[in-house]
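Two records follow; treat each independently.
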Amino acid sequence: MFDPARRRWVALTPEEWVRQCTLLRLHAAGYPLEVMQVEAAIAVNGMSRRCDIVVHSDGRPWMIVECKKNEIPLTQKVCDQACRYNTVLQVPYLLLTNGRQEVIIEIDYSVGRLIQLKELPPFVKKT
C-alpha cells in the first residue's frame, strides 16, 4: 500500500491498514498530510520507541495517534502506552484507534486531567 505521509510503499499488515485508514480520515477532517509523521521515533526512559502517527502544529507535536489492529481492544494498557509517549512529546491530544473504535482525549495540563472528547479537534495552524 502507498503511504501518502511517508511517500513510499509499505507492507499492508492489519495494523498498517488501520494506520492508513486513520491517516486518510485525519486528512479528510482537514489535517494536512505534511504535518503527519508516521512511525515517529522517540526515546522513552532511554528506550527507543515509535509513535504510529504524530500530528504537528507549528513544528511542535500536537497529537499522538496510537493504532492497533482491529482485534485489539482499546484498553487502559493502550491508553497508558500513548501516555508514556506523551511524557516525551507533551501534546494536548491523544487519539487511540483500532479501526472499529476510537477514543479521543484532550489533556488538561492545568489540573492534570484527561478529558474524553466526542469528536476530533479541528486542526488549527497557528501563525
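The next record belongs to a different protein.
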Amino acid sequence: MSDTPKRPALEGITLEMIVTRLSESIGWEEMALAVPVRCFTHDPSVKSSLKFLRRTPWARQKVEQLYLEVTRG
C-alpha cells in the first residue's frame, strides 16, 4: 500500500493533463483565484505554468488538490 492516499487518484495523470483540463473546464481566472500564482494571473499558458509548478512543490500540490476537487464535482 502507498503511504500517500491522494496519489492513486492522480496515478497516470500528468501535470500537463491537469493544467490543461483545469484551464479548459474552469478557466485561468478561476485557477488564479484558487491558487494565486503569477503563472495563472499574468499572460497564462500551459507551458509557463508547467515550468513554474515543476519547480514549486507547494503550488503543484495546491493545483493537484484543485484538480481533484473539480473532477469530483
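Discussion point: The chain has a mean pLDDT of 91. How would you locate this feature using only the C-alpha cell line?
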